[in-house]
Every structure is written in structure tokens, then in C-alpha cells.
Amino acid sequence: PVPGGFIEVKDNTILAFEVGYRATDRWTLRLAFGVPPTTTLSTGGTLNSFVPPLTGTLGSVKYGPAVASVTWTFAEFGVLRPYVGAGVNYTYVFDTTDGDIGNLRVNSAWGSALQAGFDVAIDRDWSIFVDVRKVFVKTTATGTIPALGGPPAKANVTLDPLIVHIGAGYRF
Fold first, then answer.
1. Rounded distance between C-alpha atoms, residue 107 and residue 122, angstroms
2. Under DSSP, is residue 147 helix (H, G, I), strand (E, B) or coil?
3. CA distances from 63 to 10, 18, 104, 161 (A)
4. Is cis: bond before 53, omega within 30 of 0?
């Protein structure tokens, strides 16, 4: 343990897709997923006191996020349909790249998600939407630190990204 040390994760902007099934007028099942981004893991807090001999870049992770959720629509206010929901997140780790951490491995993980948003109908089939999801994921990262003689490194990582999704929808 390094008291006061933490890992910073770089924000990402990606292209995302959502598929939904409107089960009733109020309930909708949704699956959102994105093009797998790559994010950089950097030292933070007291870990920065190890720079140098470390560079401050621990490595990078290419991951695929997916959120399955159920939403409930309050009511229709003209063309506006606000909703809230909850669901599960699965973050699949495709690849890792070493930095200051050698043999970097980050585990894929399950988490929970809260959701709120609204659809704005343009016509019978088309709409635009704004959707916000707060995701909570805990995982583990392991590896070694070659610059410090190769001791093992392990970190419990808590991620809580805020995902803002803006787009267009089409009803079949």
C-alpha cells in the first residue's frame, strides 16, 4: 500500500450504440455498448513521488463497456419522454500495454449502473435523446515494477465513470 497514492484514468470519448425494446408504454429494455476505447493509467497523489525513476504512466487498457438496463418513463409531455432506470455493466478488457507496470493485467469486471434521460420525438419513427449513466465498477490490476527492481504490484481499482450519450433514435 502507498498511503495517499491513487491511479488516474484518462477520460474517453467514443462512438456508442444502443438497442432498445419498448416492452410497454412505461418500461423499456436497453443495451448500450461502445467502440472499445484505450485509456491511459497514470500515477496520482503520493505515487508521483516515485517519478523518476517512474515516468508517471503506468500503462494503458483497451476495454469494451456494455450496459444492460431497464428504464421507466414518467409520462409523455408532448414530444418529451423523460425516463430513469438501473442496470448492470460489464467491462471487458481486450488488451493492456505496459508502462511503468510490467506484465500489466487488468481484470474484466461486472458493476452496476444508474440512468436518466429523455427522448424527444421528431416524428412517428425518429427521435433524438440525451442519456446519462453513472457506472460503478471494481476491478484488480496486477503487474511488476521493473524500474524499482521488479517487485509485484497490485491495485484494487474503483471506476465510477459518468457516461453521457447523445444521439438519434429510430423506432421499428
1. 42
2. helix
3. 13, 17, 14, 13
4. yes
φ and ψ of 75, to 5 deg:
-175, 170
Q: What angle do CA 87, 21, 78 make, to 5 degrees?
A: 100
Residue 143 is placed in which grid cell? 503487474
* Torsion-angle region of 149 (φ positive above 0: left; ψ -120 to 50: alpha; else: beta): left
Contacts of 58 (CB under 8 A, 6+ apart): 7, 41, 42, 43, 99, 100, 101, 104
* Sequential DSSP letters for 99-111: SSSEEEEE--EEE
pLDDT band at residue 143 using 50, 70 and 90 as cut-offs: very high
Confidence of residue 3 (pLDDT cuts 50, 70, 90): confident
Query: Which is nearest to 98 in space by CA: 154, 62, 44, 58?
Result: 58
Beta strands 126-144; 38-45: pairing state = unpaired
CB-based contact 114:158 (threshold 8 Å): no
For 104, how many CA atoms within 13 A lie in the half-sphere containing its CB?
A: 19
> Which pLDDT score is estimated for 111?
96
DSSP annotation of 77 reads B
Mean residue pLDDT across the chain: 91
